[in-house]
Design goal:
Strand content: 5-15%
Order of helices and strands: HHEHHEEHEHEEEHHEHEHHHHEE
Structural class: alpha/beta
Number of domains: 2
Bound molecules: thiamine diphosphate, magnesium ion
Strand order of the largest sheet: 1-4-5-9-8
Radius of gyration: 21 Å
Number of strands: 11
Number of helices: 13
CATH topology of the largest domain: Rossmann fold
Helix content: 40-55%
CATH superfamily of the largest domain: Thiamin diphosphate (ThDP)-binding fold, Pyr/PP domains
Shape: globular
Protein backbone atom coordinates (compact mmCIF):
# COMPACT_ATOMS: atom_id res chain seq x y z
CA UNK A 1 0.00 0.00 0.00
CA UNK A 2 1.32 3.41 -0.95
CA UNK A 3 2.13 5.67 1.96
CA UNK A 4 0.74 9.16 1.91
CA UNK A 5 3.50 11.67 2.24
CA UNK A 6 1.59 14.84 3.07
CA UNK A 7 1.18 16.88 5.10
CA UNK A 8 4.84 17.21 5.93
CA UNK A 9 6.18 19.83 8.26
CA UNK A 10 6.24 23.11 6.39
CA UNK A 11 7.90 26.06 8.09
CA UNK A 12 5.76 27.72 10.77
CA UNK A 13 5.62 31.46 11.35
CA UNK A 14 8.36 32.19 13.87
CA UNK A 15 7.40 35.27 15.87
CA UNK A 16 5.36 34.77 19.04
CA UNK A 17 3.07 37.66 18.10
CA UNK A 18 1.55 36.47 14.84
CA UNK A 19 -0.22 38.54 12.16
CA UNK A 20 -3.41 36.52 12.75
CA UNK A 21 -3.42 37.69 16.35
CA UNK A 22 -4.28 41.20 15.22
CA UNK A 23 -7.53 40.00 13.63
CA UNK A 24 -10.74 40.39 15.62
CA UNK A 25 -12.59 37.56 17.33
CA UNK A 26 -15.44 38.33 14.95
CA UNK A 27 -13.26 37.53 11.92
CA UNK A 28 -12.06 34.23 13.35
CA UNK A 29 -15.58 33.28 14.46
CA UNK A 30 -16.64 34.00 10.86
CA UNK A 31 -14.01 31.52 9.65
CA UNK A 32 -15.22 28.93 12.14
CA UNK A 33 -18.80 29.37 10.98
CA UNK A 34 -17.81 29.17 7.34
CA UNK A 35 -15.76 25.98 7.86
CA UNK A 36 -18.51 24.32 9.87
CA UNK A 37 -21.06 25.33 7.23
CA UNK A 38 -18.99 23.57 4.57
CA UNK A 39 -18.57 20.45 6.75
CA UNK A 40 -22.31 20.24 7.47
CA UNK A 41 -23.18 21.00 3.85
CA UNK A 42 -21.00 18.15 2.64
CA UNK A 43 -22.53 15.70 5.10
CA UNK A 44 -25.96 16.55 3.69
CA UNK A 45 -24.61 16.37 0.14
CA UNK A 46 -23.46 12.81 0.72
CA UNK A 47 -26.84 11.85 2.17
CA UNK A 48 -28.70 13.36 -0.77
CA UNK A 49 -26.36 11.60 -3.20
CA UNK A 50 -26.92 8.26 -1.49
CA UNK A 51 -30.66 8.82 -1.82
CA UNK A 52 -30.11 9.39 -5.57
CA UNK A 53 -31.38 12.96 -5.29
CA UNK A 54 -28.07 14.25 -6.68
CA UNK A 55 -26.67 12.70 -9.84
CA UNK A 56 -23.44 12.82 -11.82
CA UNK A 57 -19.97 13.13 -10.37
CA UNK A 58 -19.76 14.58 -6.90
CA UNK A 59 -16.64 15.28 -4.81
CA UNK A 60 -16.91 16.51 -1.26
CA UNK A 61 -14.52 18.89 0.50
CA UNK A 62 -14.63 17.59 4.10
CA UNK A 63 -11.22 17.95 5.75
CA UNK A 64 -9.98 20.67 3.39
CA UNK A 65 -12.12 23.54 4.74
CA UNK A 66 -9.21 25.63 6.06
CA UNK A 67 -7.81 25.89 2.52
CA UNK A 68 -10.74 27.68 0.88
CA UNK A 69 -11.81 29.65 3.95
CA UNK A 70 -8.28 30.74 4.89
CA UNK A 71 -7.14 31.78 1.43
CA UNK A 72 -10.40 33.46 0.38
CA UNK A 73 -10.30 35.19 3.76
CA UNK A 74 -7.23 37.09 2.47
CA UNK A 75 -9.00 38.45 -0.63
CA UNK A 76 -10.96 41.54 -1.55
CA UNK A 77 -14.53 41.05 -2.71
CA UNK A 78 -13.77 41.63 -6.40
CA UNK A 79 -10.71 39.36 -6.70
CA UNK A 80 -11.54 36.51 -9.10
CA UNK A 81 -11.45 32.89 -7.96
CA UNK A 82 -11.40 29.74 -10.09
CA UNK A 83 -11.11 26.11 -9.07
CA UNK A 84 -11.51 22.46 -10.05
CA UNK A 85 -14.49 20.17 -9.51
CA UNK A 86 -14.18 19.77 -5.71
CA UNK A 87 -15.77 23.17 -5.51
CA UNK A 88 -18.65 23.35 -3.02
CA UNK A 89 -16.34 24.68 -0.28
CA UNK A 90 -14.95 27.48 -2.45
CA UNK A 91 -18.46 28.47 -3.52
CA UNK A 92 -19.72 28.72 0.05
CA UNK A 93 -16.54 30.44 1.24
CA UNK A 94 -16.89 33.00 -1.57
CA UNK A 95 -20.41 33.83 -0.41
CA UNK A 96 -22.73 31.66 -2.49
CA UNK A 97 -25.86 30.76 -0.53
CA UNK A 98 -26.31 27.15 0.59
CA UNK A 99 -29.63 27.21 -1.30
CA UNK A 100 -28.04 28.14 -4.66
CA UNK A 101 -25.30 25.55 -4.17
CA UNK A 102 -27.60 22.70 -3.13
CA UNK A 103 -30.17 23.51 -5.84
CA UNK A 104 -27.40 23.35 -8.42
CA UNK A 105 -26.50 19.84 -7.31
CA UNK A 106 -30.14 18.81 -7.49
CA UNK A 107 -30.21 20.12 -11.09
CA UNK A 108 -32.89 22.68 -10.22
CA UNK A 109 -33.60 26.05 -11.84
CA UNK A 110 -32.61 28.31 -8.88
CA UNK A 111 -29.16 26.64 -8.76
CA UNK A 112 -26.19 28.95 -9.37
CA UNK A 113 -25.84 27.62 -12.95
CA UNK A 114 -29.60 27.19 -13.44
CA UNK A 115 -29.25 23.52 -12.56
CA UNK A 116 -27.32 22.85 -15.75
CA UNK A 117 -23.85 22.46 -14.26
CA UNK A 118 -24.23 20.27 -11.19
CA UNK A 119 -21.72 19.58 -8.45
CA UNK A 120 -18.58 20.23 -10.51
CA UNK A 121 -19.67 23.57 -11.98
CA UNK A 122 -20.32 26.10 -9.26
CA UNK A 123 -20.36 29.55 -10.87
CA UNK A 124 -21.18 32.80 -9.12
CA UNK A 125 -20.33 35.88 -11.13
CA UNK A 126 -21.54 38.44 -8.56
CA UNK A 127 -19.13 36.86 -6.08
CA UNK A 128 -16.38 36.61 -8.72
CA UNK A 129 -16.29 32.80 -8.73
CA UNK A 130 -15.61 31.46 -12.24
CA UNK A 131 -16.13 27.72 -11.67
CA UNK A 132 -15.94 24.69 -10.94
CA UNK A 133 -14.08 22.81 -13.80
CA UNK A 134 -14.16 19.07 -14.43
CA UNK A 135 -11.12 18.61 -16.66
CA UNK A 136 -8.05 18.21 -14.48
CA UNK A 137 -5.82 21.29 -14.88
CA UNK A 138 -8.15 23.00 -17.38
CA UNK A 139 -8.78 25.89 -15.04
CA UNK A 140 -5.09 26.83 -14.84
CA UNK A 141 -4.88 28.69 -18.18
CA UNK A 142 -8.28 30.20 -17.40
CA UNK A 143 -6.86 31.47 -14.11
CA UNK A 144 -4.00 33.08 -16.04
CA UNK A 145 -6.59 34.64 -18.36
CA UNK A 146 -8.63 36.04 -15.49
CA UNK A 147 -5.48 37.57 -14.04
CA UNK A 148 -4.59 39.01 -17.45
CA UNK A 149 -8.07 40.57 -17.66
CA UNK A 150 -7.78 42.21 -14.24
CA UNK A 151 -4.37 43.65 -15.06
CA UNK A 152 -5.51 44.85 -18.50
CA UNK A 153 -8.56 46.53 -17.00
CA UNK A 154 -6.53 48.31 -14.35
CA UNK A 155 -3.41 49.17 -16.37
CA UNK A 156 -4.64 49.67 -19.94
CA UNK A 157 -8.25 50.70 -19.48
CA UNK A 158 -7.63 52.64 -16.27
CA UNK A 159 -10.56 50.96 -14.54
CA UNK A 160 -10.69 49.78 -10.93
CA UNK A 161 -7.67 48.81 -8.88
CA UNK A 162 -5.07 46.06 -8.79
CA UNK A 163 -6.61 42.64 -8.29
CA UNK A 164 -5.33 39.11 -7.66
CA UNK A 165 -6.76 35.86 -9.02
CA UNK A 166 -6.75 32.68 -6.95
CA UNK A 167 -6.49 29.57 -9.12
CA UNK A 168 -6.89 26.33 -7.15
CA UNK A 169 -5.85 22.94 -8.43
CA UNK A 170 -5.29 19.48 -6.99
CA UNK A 171 -1.90 17.78 -6.72
CA UNK A 172 -2.99 15.61 -9.67
CA UNK A 173 -3.09 18.65 -11.94
CA UNK A 174 0.60 19.52 -11.59
CA UNK A 175 1.39 16.81 -14.14
CA UNK A 176 -0.72 18.46 -16.83
CA UNK A 177 0.88 20.33 -19.72
CA UNK A 178 -1.64 23.16 -19.53
CA UNK A 179 -0.53 23.85 -15.96
CA UNK A 180 3.08 24.37 -17.08
CA UNK A 181 2.02 26.55 -19.99
CA UNK A 182 -0.04 28.68 -17.62
CA UNK A 183 2.87 29.07 -15.20
CA UNK A 184 5.22 30.03 -18.00
CA UNK A 185 2.95 32.71 -19.43
CA UNK A 186 2.07 34.05 -15.98
CA UNK A 187 5.73 34.59 -15.16
CA UNK A 188 6.50 35.98 -18.61
CA UNK A 189 3.61 38.46 -18.71
CA UNK A 190 3.55 39.34 -15.00
CA UNK A 191 0.07 38.05 -14.27
CA UNK A 192 -1.33 38.50 -10.76
CA UNK A 193 -2.45 34.91 -10.22
CA UNK A 194 -1.73 32.62 -7.28
CA UNK A 195 -1.70 28.93 -8.17
CA UNK A 196 -2.79 27.10 -5.04
CA UNK A 197 -2.13 23.37 -5.07
CA UNK A 198 -4.58 21.83 -2.63
CA UNK A 199 -2.21 18.99 -1.98
CA UNK A 200 -4.31 16.28 -0.32
CA UNK A 201 -1.79 13.59 -1.20
CA UNK A 202 -3.93 11.72 -3.72
CA UNK A 203 -5.08 12.00 -7.28
CA UNK A 204 -8.13 9.72 -7.21
CA UNK A 205 -6.55 6.54 -5.75
CA UNK A 206 -2.96 7.35 -6.71
CA UNK A 207 -0.70 8.66 -3.97
CA UNK A 208 1.29 11.73 -4.97
CA UNK A 209 4.61 9.85 -4.78
CA UNK A 210 3.34 7.52 -7.48
CA UNK A 211 2.15 10.17 -9.93
CA UNK A 212 4.60 13.02 -9.85
CA UNK A 213 8.38 13.31 -9.70
CA UNK A 214 10.08 15.19 -6.85
CA UNK A 215 6.74 15.34 -5.07
CA UNK A 216 8.20 16.42 -1.76
CA UNK A 217 9.41 19.64 -3.36
CA UNK A 218 6.42 20.73 -5.39
CA UNK A 219 7.38 24.36 -4.93
CA UNK A 220 10.33 23.68 -7.23
CA UNK A 221 7.75 23.66 -10.05
CA UNK A 222 6.93 27.27 -9.36
CA UNK A 223 10.53 28.27 -8.68
CA UNK A 224 11.67 26.84 -11.99
CA UNK A 225 9.63 29.56 -13.71
CA UNK A 226 11.06 32.21 -11.38
CA UNK A 227 7.76 32.36 -9.49
CA UNK A 228 7.67 33.10 -5.75
CA UNK A 229 6.71 29.75 -4.20
CA UNK A 230 5.84 28.70 -0.65
CA UNK A 231 4.61 25.62 1.17
CA UNK A 232 1.90 26.16 3.81
CA UNK A 233 0.18 23.89 6.33
CA UNK A 234 -3.38 23.91 4.99
CA UNK A 235 -4.80 22.16 8.04
CA UNK A 236 -4.18 25.16 10.29
CA UNK A 237 -6.17 28.17 9.19
CA UNK A 238 -4.07 30.54 11.29
CA UNK A 239 -0.94 29.39 9.47
CA UNK A 240 -2.77 29.78 6.19
CA UNK A 241 -3.61 33.39 7.03
CA UNK A 242 -0.15 34.29 8.35
CA UNK A 243 1.68 32.91 5.35
CA UNK A 244 -0.82 33.48 2.58
CA UNK A 245 -1.72 37.11 3.32
CA UNK A 246 1.82 38.38 2.45
CA UNK A 247 1.73 36.37 -0.78
CA UNK A 248 -1.53 38.05 -1.78
CA UNK A 249 -0.13 41.47 -0.95
CA UNK A 250 3.02 40.82 -2.99
CA UNK A 251 1.05 39.62 -6.02
CA UNK A 252 -1.36 42.53 -5.83
CA UNK A 253 1.30 45.20 -5.39
CA UNK A 254 3.91 43.84 -7.81
CA UNK A 255 1.40 42.35 -10.24
CA UNK A 256 3.10 39.01 -10.60
CA UNK A 257 2.27 35.34 -9.97
CA UNK A 258 2.90 33.06 -6.99
CA UNK A 259 2.72 29.36 -6.30
CA UNK A 260 1.51 27.76 -3.06
CA UNK A 261 1.80 24.11 -2.07
CA UNK A 262 -1.04 23.95 0.46
CA UNK A 263 -0.83 20.71 2.42
CA UNK A 264 -4.18 19.22 3.32
CA UNK A 265 -6.15 15.97 3.52
CA UNK A 266 -9.57 14.81 2.39
CA UNK A 267 -11.62 12.72 4.80
CA UNK A 268 -13.95 11.12 2.27
CA UNK A 269 -13.25 9.15 -0.88
CA UNK A 270 -12.25 10.85 -4.11
CA UNK A 271 -15.85 10.88 -5.29
CA UNK A 272 -19.01 9.25 -4.06
CA UNK A 273 -18.10 5.87 -5.54
CA UNK A 274 -14.64 5.27 -4.11
CA UNK A 275 -13.97 2.12 -2.04
CA UNK A 276 -10.72 3.76 -0.78
CA UNK A 277 -8.62 0.62 -1.00
CA UNK A 278 -5.51 2.75 -1.45
CA UNK A 279 -5.37 4.05 2.13
CA UNK A 280 -5.96 2.75 5.63
CA UNK A 281 -8.57 3.85 8.13
CA UNK A 282 -5.70 4.53 10.53
CA UNK A 283 -4.25 7.06 8.16
CA UNK A 284 -7.56 8.91 7.90
CA UNK A 285 -8.03 8.81 11.68
CA UNK A 286 -4.55 10.19 12.19
CA UNK A 287 -5.33 13.22 10.07
CA UNK A 288 -8.62 13.69 11.88
CA UNK A 289 -6.63 14.31 15.07
CA UNK A 290 -5.33 17.46 13.33
CA UNK A 291 -8.79 18.58 12.25
CA UNK A 292 -8.79 22.22 11.21
CA UNK A 293 -12.20 23.06 12.67
CA UNK A 294 -11.31 21.50 16.03
CA UNK A 295 -7.99 23.41 16.05
CA UNK A 296 -9.62 26.78 15.40
CA UNK A 297 -12.35 26.08 17.92
CA UNK A 298 -9.73 25.21 20.51
CA UNK A 299 -7.90 28.48 19.84
CA UNK A 300 -11.09 30.54 20.03
CA UNK A 301 -12.25 28.84 23.22
CA UNK A 302 -9.05 28.39 25.15
CA UNK A 303 -6.67 31.13 23.93
CA UNK A 304 -9.10 33.91 23.09
CA UNK A 305 -12.13 33.07 25.23
CA UNK A 306 -14.22 34.13 22.22
CA UNK A 307 -16.71 31.27 22.30
CA UNK A 308 -17.97 28.81 24.92
CA UNK A 309 -19.66 25.41 24.66
CA UNK A 310 -23.17 26.89 24.60
CA UNK A 311 -22.34 29.39 21.87
CA UNK A 312 -20.66 26.68 19.79
CA UNK A 313 -23.70 24.46 20.19
CA UNK A 314 -25.94 27.34 19.10
CA UNK A 315 -23.71 28.04 16.08
CA UNK A 316 -23.83 24.40 14.97
CA UNK A 317 -27.57 24.24 15.39
CA UNK A 318 -28.06 27.42 13.33
CA UNK A 319 -25.82 25.96 10.59
CA UNK A 320 -27.73 22.67 10.64
CA UNK A 321 -30.95 24.62 10.10
CA UNK A 322 -29.42 26.62 7.25
CA UNK A 323 -28.26 23.47 5.46
CA UNK A 324 -31.51 21.62 6.11
CA UNK A 325 -33.33 24.58 4.63
CA UNK A 326 -31.12 24.40 1.53
CA UNK A 327 -32.04 20.74 1.06
CA UNK A 328 -35.77 21.44 1.43
CA UNK A 329 -35.42 24.36 -0.95
CA UNK A 330 -33.62 22.22 -3.54
CA UNK A 331 -36.15 19.40 -3.24
CA UNK A 332 -39.15 21.62 -3.79
CA UNK A 333 -37.58 23.85 -6.48
CA UNK A 334 -38.61 23.57 -10.13
CA UNK A 335 -36.43 21.82 -12.67
CA UNK A 336 -35.19 24.06 -15.50
CA UNK A 337 -37.61 24.51 -18.38
CA UNK A 338 -36.18 22.17 -21.01
CA UNK A 339 -37.51 24.17 -23.96
CA UNK A 340 -35.99 27.38 -22.65
CA UNK A 341 -32.78 26.10 -21.17
CA UNK A 342 -31.52 23.09 -23.09
CA UNK A 343 -30.03 25.16 -25.91
CA UNK A 344 -29.33 28.43 -24.12
CA UNK A 345 -25.98 29.36 -22.50
CA UNK A 346 -24.13 27.28 -25.08
CA UNK A 347 -21.42 28.41 -27.45
CA UNK A 348 -22.79 26.64 -30.50
CA UNK A 349 -26.10 27.76 -31.90
CA UNK A 350 -28.60 24.93 -32.10
CA UNK A 351 -29.73 23.39 -35.36
CA UNK A 352 -33.01 24.91 -36.49
CA UNK A 353 -34.96 21.68 -36.16
CA UNK A 354 -33.82 20.99 -32.60
CA UNK A 355 -34.93 23.87 -30.48
CA UNK A 356 -37.93 26.13 -30.09
CA UNK A 357 -35.52 28.84 -28.89
CA UNK A 358 -33.66 28.84 -32.22
CA UNK A 359 -34.77 32.29 -33.32
CA UNK A 360 -33.55 34.11 -30.26
CA UNK A 361 -30.51 33.27 -28.16
CA UNK A 362 -29.99 35.26 -24.93
CA UNK A 363 -32.67 37.61 -26.21
CA UNK A 364 -30.72 38.34 -29.44
CA UNK A 365 -31.55 37.24 -32.95
CA UNK A 366 -29.69 34.05 -33.85
CA UNK A 367 -27.22 35.30 -36.50
CA UNK A 368 -27.16 31.93 -38.24
CA UNK A 369 -30.83 32.07 -39.16
C1 LIG B 1 -7.64 15.67 -18.14
C2 LIG B 1 -8.29 14.74 -17.19
N1 LIG B 1 -7.73 13.52 -16.97
C3 LIG B 1 -8.31 12.67 -16.09
C4 LIG B 1 -9.47 13.02 -15.44
C5 LIG B 1 -10.09 12.06 -14.44
N2 LIG B 1 -9.89 12.58 -13.10
C6 LIG B 1 -10.88 13.22 -12.46
S1 LIG B 1 -10.41 13.73 -10.96
C7 LIG B 1 -8.85 13.10 -11.12
C8 LIG B 1 -7.86 13.21 -10.00
C9 LIG B 1 -7.33 14.58 -9.76
O1 LIG B 1 -6.74 14.65 -8.49
P1 LIG B 1 -6.27 15.99 -7.84
O2 LIG B 1 -5.90 16.95 -8.91
O3 LIG B 1 -5.24 15.69 -6.84
O4 LIG B 1 -7.57 16.60 -7.14
P2 LIG B 1 -8.39 16.08 -5.87
O5 LIG B 1 -9.45 15.17 -6.40
O6 LIG B 1 -7.43 15.39 -4.97
O7 LIG B 1 -9.00 17.29 -5.28
C10 LIG B 1 -8.73 12.49 -12.35
C11 LIG B 1 -7.51 11.81 -12.81
C12 LIG B 1 -10.04 14.28 -15.73
N3 LIG B 1 -11.15 14.72 -15.13
N4 LIG B 1 -9.42 15.14 -16.58
MG1 LIG C 1 -5.39 15.48 -4.77
Amino acid sequence: MAQVTTPGSPPKPSSSRRPVDSLSNETLLGWLRSMQLIREFETRTQQAYQQAKIGGFCHVYSGQEACAVGTIGCLKDDDPVITAYRDHGHALARGMTARACMAEMYGKAPGCAKGKGGSMHMFDKPNHLYGGHGIVGAQTPLGAGLAFATRYEWEVMGKGSKRVCLCYLGDGAVDQGAFHEALNLSALFGLPVIYIIENNGYSMGTAIGRHTANHENLIDRGKSYGIHSVQIDGLDIRDVYDQFQPVVEMCREEQKPAFVDLLTYRYQGHSMSDPQKYRTKDEVDQFKTKDSIAALLDHLMNDRGAIDEDAWKAMRSEIRDEVKDSVEFAESAEAPDVDQELYSDVFVFPQPNLSPTRDYIHGSKNPLL
